[in-house]
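Researcher: Good morning. I'm working through a list of sequences from a screen, and I'd like to move beyond sequence-only analysis. For each chain I'm collecting a predicted structure so we can compare shapes side by side. This is the next one on the list. No need for commentary yet; just the structure.
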Amino acid sequence: MRRIVLLGLAVVLLGFMAPAAQAAPRLACGATITTSTKLKADLVCPSGTALQVKPDGAPVVLDLGGHQIKGSGVGVAISGLGNAGLATVRNGVLTGFARGVLMSDSPGSRLKDLKLVGPGSDQADSVGVEVFTSPTFVLDGVTIKGYRSV
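Model: Good morning. Structure tokens for this chain:
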């Protein structure tokens, strides 16, 4: 009997001392991505910038995992402004934003296997992909519709 009690006490103590497994944090609207990340669920962002990509000198992949980032006709789905080089955004749908993707100073960045659906071509300032000072920016398997311009 004493052995069972001691064994049970040891198991309980080990349980308290063992590190708990931590789940990956869920992305929220307005988050800044600095390391490679995979979206685990659809994201609905009614205003502002949904996600900002800032590689900080090392390559970063934002994998949407087949999910959607949904807006309400305003804001930017994905932004990479200033030192956003070497960013890849792939595998999902960006829908309902005034700007689908806005990148600046992003040489070597890539959009791959994305579908961008704008708020409708009647919205005068809607742009699917807007890129500034970013030579060798690559679009690979990207579909853009519902924007006034690309």
